[in-house]
Write a structure and sequence with these properties.
The structure is a homodimer.
Chain A (H helix, E strand, L loop, with lengths): L7 H22 L5 H40 L10 H36 L1 H39 L6 E3 L2 E3 L1 H49 L11 H41 L12 H22 L10 H30 L3 E6 L3 E6 H26 L4 H9 L4 H14 L1 H32 L2 H23 L4 H44 L9 H42 L12 H15 L1 H21 L4 H42 L1 E3 L2 E3 L4 H42 L4 H6 L21 E8 L4 E9 L4 E9 H13 L1
Antiparallel strand pairs in A: 1-2, 3-4, 5-6, 7-8, 8-9
Helix pairs in contact in A: 1-4, 1-7, 2-3, 2-6, 2-16, 3-4, 3-5, 3-6, 3-13, 3-14, 4-5, 4-6, 4-7, 4-13, 5-6, 5-15, 5-16, 5-19, 6-7, 6-12, 6-13, 6-14, 6-16, 6-19, 7-8, 7-12, 7-13, 8-9, 8-14, 9-12, 9-14, 10-11, 10-18, 11-18, 11-19, 12-14, 13-14, 14-18, 14-19, 15-16, ...
């Protein structure tokens, strides 16, 4: 029987989108200011649209190519994936692009309105800028949940007639579990589409924003000696566009991808829980409670985020950074608290009170739904704590930053060593936090627990994105104030928002890494279940070799991204120099710089330079499978393990390099900023313009591509790698019923014999297990002691027999 | 029957040591020059001895503490390791220290003799400096092989009465295989002792040399404006001592440790080959040919290295770098070629023509001895190619260096980004090379093949070290020439040697990484056999969590080492400044600097700062086991897998960070050096003193701790981690016969059923397997087809039965 709950997440997503539309029209109704402001804002808007347009043109080609490849995969022998994965893929790409498009449009419309609002008061400026962020956050989260759940509903009817019963697929009878697996394999296309767009948005956006930034600074600030955001600088519009392209659209696409992938992975593992419980459960949700739960959490999370965003406000016009940060914190903490409550309600309501889950090497265990709830708490804890850890290593006035400041006095070399070391050391608490979270959530509820921990953490995505997007909006608002030569207090107000925005940008990156790490692990677990292998054994040399190769990829990817920024920035430098040289009166303000040319250069460079990292990311997993097929044509299990080893290598190394690069970059940035207010070095107050400050500026130059290009790209790299693995998995898979008929195999039933007394050392336990063609297993257990011999026989599916053997073992 | 071959490697080692003594007395007989030269050389010698003395004092405490801990381990319940592991450990530490001591003494005696020889001719200078290097190389290799083989001979008689037969241990009857395992577990103590000393020598030495170097440069060159190696600089002696402490003693201890560990791991895996073949083989080597083979290769390698060193000479006094490099290459390539021939002879002579080896997931396979030979070729190939790869990314005039030089024109920031990116990209070919080598040598001959690949590569250790040590000796010789104000042509001659030495230093680092990587993999494989687990499944979340933690350790270790250099260098800066301020006439050359004070500061700082990285390295594996025992008191298998996951994480990440840091550091160094001859930037010749050069100097400052401290330390970190795992392994082990008696368990016998025709889909294969208390296994295989039923019974040890089942499967 179908449950109404299958529709609820989609409905909640629509509610979120409706709220977003209302908020959006409120923001757009705000006063966009007068002449010059409007003009500049228009330039930024046009620049952003120009980038999007060029990007979409390229992406259309990519989507067509990838669709053909995906379609080809479904025709491979042994593949169970349905051709409709292509539709899911295209929609995933389109939805992700739509979300990015919408976010960037609202951000570029909100910036000037924030500037105008800042002319009246700070609370109003916060309201407008955070309003824009809210639109962005709800748009991304709403589209993510709506897209995924709508496709699930559609596929559930298409593949399973909306019921948990066995049925025909490709002319074979499949169990409900198998049909659901095929459904979810196909649904993975949506996630793959979203993440592919994210790759280009993050990497392309990262290259764009830094090329424009570095180019504008090198010629404008250093060579021509004009201040930041000066309208005479031809690259200044590109720079402001970059903030939106990189920080708004890039981050949005990143979290869109994480959100979808996390929920998907949790659904896959939910299906596995049902399988472990014997292939069907009786509940009020049509027997698919564990599969619906992650979607329900995501849906409720949207409503919670709406509540959270409503709490973000200040009333005092003289408020400082602390109050603004405090307002954001209230919203954030309330959302997290409400999510915990929602998880409790949903988990205890939707899951069976006790579930059976298989733990590799430990056998089957009874897991209560409360333990799943504890796993979600682990996820919420990680999401909250990771921000503090990031804040410690990158925050103004914190010990590591002060140490870097001190080291700046002996030159750029020591500043850079200190920054690198800070980033490297910051991996210590971060990795321990992640490792503990993996272990704890797994100990509570297996990999389903890990996936639900990620789901709970991601539930407040809309809120996180709102906080995140408000930063670049405020940054832009300040730029517009500067370029429009507005009164000083306007810039002061936007500066307060911008300063808070810098902190939230750093902590937001921490959240994005944490989400990427947990998402990848959940996908990794889903991968193993899709392929039907019973583990990834790194004691097999080919698997170990792939672990090495996987570990290397993030390092090389980062290097490529960094070099790309360098190349793109040089293009920009030459163009700005040319304009200064050739346009008469440009420095006097009488000649008009050709902003569009600079926007065009950044756009082209970003699109050109993201190709190689993209090929690396997508090509390597495919190459490994092809190589594996070449060397081991008959051993899909080993190839699946090799690909799994590669995925693990990319994930472990990718997380490390993400943390290292983001935090080193953030630390250098704030070490440089520390000089603005003045710092005490060797007993002397030191300010901007000092040699120590120059050293710190050099450090920041190194940190820019770290924190804005290569570091954040790691998130996409690890998620996309795991997703590609997941889509390939069915080809290597052993869950296919057809394969079972062809291979009659000895079943391994692992039972740890009860440790006998020392005197019983002659006790023998004999287990005989048989799997027949129809998948049924018969196990005969013979116990021989000194005095007697007894025989017990268990029959049923493999899962049932294992469960019975477990129970027998307990006796 | 005992074979004479057991004594041959030890005899060859003694031959090597005798040759070393002769060479040593020849070097010492060379003219040490006159007054000032002798005095300076004496200072360096004293400084080096002072460091060694202080270091040994600390190490004595460490060895005592570690011995107690090791002794305690042997008393743990379930541990099979014999108490004599403590003796092996102490001797390993003493031999390693002895080798380092000897190497450093000869290096500090050879430097001044090289200077003196350079007054007559370049060929003579090369002869002397390379003679010193040869003494160092043969001393290290000779002591390593002698120590390991002597202990093996002793233990073979002590544990097994010099025979491959079963025997009593701790009152239990053990098979010969088990006794050999216990023997090798105990022998691992020797390797652990050697590697522990290497940790302190490498890390301490690395900190020492860079603290002195950076301190001397910052105050001397930058603040006081006096040239490098100026005798008025109080830190200049410490700087020259540092070259010996870091590059000679550190590298020597590193390769000593690799050499011993590689041979040990290959022996462990050789024992496993015998086990896979049913527990005994009949050969002309007392049934232990596969175990003796790695020792034989090591022994013959010493003789080959002697031949190789004899070929290194030039005759032309006007020779340039290319000719000197060519002479070294001749020696190196001939050694590698001879080693290939020796491997062919030894492998085909000492191994059974065909061996059975178990491949996890693929079952037993017949491996011919020729395949083992191919595996050794893989090792030799890696050793040769890794140098070229390193040379490409760090060599003067190569593309990556030229790119960094170009980027220097836009400032230190772009120089540093380019250097970082170069180091990062260099992981691409390096990791692909390693991964292919692992895969290929494993495909040829399993993990025994991997270990023998490493053994073959390490066979020419003496030659590699000779090439390596000659660099810092020449560097020192140049320093002495400068400080003694000798004629210009002397310095020119030593500069040629020094320049070649810089190249060999970079390629030597490549060799050291490759050796560490392969050694660690061999140890990793040995670990799995010691613990008796059948793999490391990263799909178990606790194992995956430890993979993450392991991956993080090298990053944090590197950061600690880098910070240590910073702190120690600041101590040095303050001391040099103090002396310049307080000692009258120091700048005029009338006052005498207090060299000893600077030596003392470097010494103290190095010893103090190496504590934390040391604790991190040694403490974490122990902490993981303790944590595992706490959470899973009954599941040693899982704890062993967790520790294995940690080891894999450390190895993968450690290799990446070693390659990244060494190559980035080498690249920056040579980018800076490029300015000495002048470089073309944007069409203009640019020299020393230009802004671009200053930017390159900043890059080199960052690179110094990368390439001389944290980068090379990675080798020790990964090897020591795997060795500690190996020593802990027996506690977690399942190979213990006693444990078998206590746990009567169902044996998993994995058999892939032959794929039946589609029509035979009703065929059933039933396997019933029983393991009894005495370790014997009885397997009954019932085959039921549509028409008939047949039964076959196999009995014997687990390995035998598996082999028979494999054979059955083939039918």
């Amino acid at each position: 029987m179908e449950s109404i709950m299958i529709y609820v997440p989609a409905i909640l997503a629509v509610v979120g989108l409706l709220f977003m539309v209302i908020k959006r029209s409120w923001v757009l109704k705000q006063d966009p200011g007068d002449g010059k402001m409007k003009e500049i804002s228009e330039y930024i808007y046009e620049g952003a649209l120009a980038f999007l347009k060029a990007e979409y043109k390229l992406l259309t080609l990519f989507v067509i190519g990838a669709s053909i490849a995906l379609a080809a995969i479904t025709f491979l022998p042994g593949a169970t994936t349905h051709l409709s994965i292509v539709i899911a893929f295209v929609f995933g790409a389109v939805f992700s692009a739509l979300a990015g498009n919408m976010g960037m449009k609202i951000a570029t419309k909100t910036n000037v309105r924030t500037t105008q609002a800042a002319r009246t008061s700070l609370p109003q400026a916060l309201k407008v800028s955070f309003g824009g962020g809210t639109v962005m956050g709800l748009g991304v989260a709403g589209l993510a949940v709506l897209g995924l759940t709508a496709f699930f509903i559609f596929f559930f009817h298409f593949f399973m007639n909306g019921q948990w019963v066995e049925g025909l697929y490709n002319g074979e009878t499949r169990t409900a579990n198998e049909l659901m697996t095929i459904l979810l394999e196909t649904l993975a296309g949506f996630s793959l589409g979203a993440e592919s767009i994210a790759l280009f948005a993050r990497v392309g956006g990262g290259i764009y924003t830094k090329a424009a930034d570095v180019g504008a600074d090198l010629v404008g600030k250093v060579e021509a000696g004009i201040p930041e955001d000066d309208p005479r600088n031809p690259a200044t519009i590109a720079d402001n566009v970059g903030d939106n392209v990189g920080d708004v659209a890039g981050m949005g696409a990143d979290l869109f991808g994480s959100y979808v992938a996390t929920v998907l992975a949790a659904m896959v593992l939910g299906n596995y829980v049902i399988k472990d419980m014997g292939g069907s459960i009786a509940d009020a949700f049509g027997g698919i409670g564990p599969i619906l739960l992650p979607m329900a959490i995501a849906g409720v999370g949207i409503i919670i985020s709406i509540i959270g965003t409503m709490l973000v406000k200040i009333s005092n016009n003289d408020a400082k950074e602390a109050q603004v940060q405090g307002a954001l914190n209230v919203g954030n903490w309330v959302s997290i608290g409400l999510t915990a409550v929602a998880c409790y309600v949903l988990v205890t309501w939707m899951l069976p009170a006790t579930m059976k889950m298989k733990f590799y090497g430990e056998g089957y265990m009874d897991i209560s739904s409360m333990r799943v709830f504890y796993a979600t708490l682990v996820g919420l804890f990680v999401g909250a704590v990771i921000s503090s850890v990031t804040e410690y290593y990158t925050g103004l006035g914190k010990k590591p930053i002060l140490a870097i400041v001190q080291k700046s006095s002996t030159g750029a070399g020591t500043n850079i060593i200190a920054g690198l070391a800070t980033g490297m050391i910051s991996t210590f608490p971060t990795v321990l936090l992640f490792a503990s979270a993996i272990w704890a959530s797994y100990a509570f509820a297996g990999f389903y627990g890990v996936a639900l921990a990620a789901s709970a953490m991601m539930a407040t995505t809309a809120m996180q994105l709102a906080i995140d997007a408000f930063g670049p909006i405020s940054d832009n608002a300040g730029g517009i104030a500067e370029m429009s030569e507005l009164p000083k207090e306007v810039r002061q107000r936007t500066d307060i928002l911008d300063s808070v925005g810098n902190t939230t940008a750093a902590t937001g990156k921490g959240f994005a890494i944490a989400s990427a790490a947990l998402t990848s692990l959940a996908l990794f677990a889903a991968y193993v279940t899709f392929t039907g292998i019973d583990g990834i054994n790194i004691f097999k040399a080919p698997v170990l070799a792939m672990l090495f190769v996987g570990g290397m990829i993030p390092v090389v990817f980062s290097a490529l991204a960094m070099n790309s920024v360098g190349k793109a920035a040089m293009d920009m430098v030459y163009e700005v120099r040319r304009q200064f040289r050739e346009i008469p009166g440009i420095m006097e303000g009488t000649g008009k710089p050709e902003y569009a040319k600079c926007v065009d250069i950044s756009t082209k460079a970003a699109l050109r330079e993201m190709m190689l990292p993209g090929i690396l990311t997508i090509g390597f997993p495919i190459a490994i499978v092809l190589l594996g097929k070449l060397v081991y044509p008959e051993n899909n299990q080993l190839i699946a393990e090799m690909l799994g080893g590669y995925m693990a290598g990319v994930t472990v190394s990718g997380v490390l390099w993400a943390v290292f690069q983001n935090n080193a970059g953030g630390a250098w940035d704030n070490a440089k900023k520390s000089f603005e207010a003045g710092v005490m070095i060797n007993g002397e107050m030191t300010y901007k313009g000092s040699d120590a400050h120059k050293a710190a500026v050099t450090g920041d130059t190194v940190g820019d591509p770290f924190k804005d290009t290569s570091g954040p790209s790691m998130n996409i790299l690890i998620k996309l790698t795991c997703l590609i693995g997941l889509v390939i998995a069915p080809i290597l898979g052993g869950h296919d019923a057809k394969a079972v008929v062809q291979e009659v195999e000895a079943v391994e039933v692992v039972v740890e014999a009860p440790a006998p007394e020392v005197k019983q050392s002659t006790k023998e336990i004999r287990i005989e297990s048989v799997k027949s063609a129809d998948g049924k297993v018969k196990a005969t257990v013979t116990t021989v002691t000194d005095s007697a011999e007894s025989v017990e026989v268990f029959e049923g599916t493999e899962a049932e027999v294992n469960a019975k053997l477990e129970a027998f073992k307990k006796k």
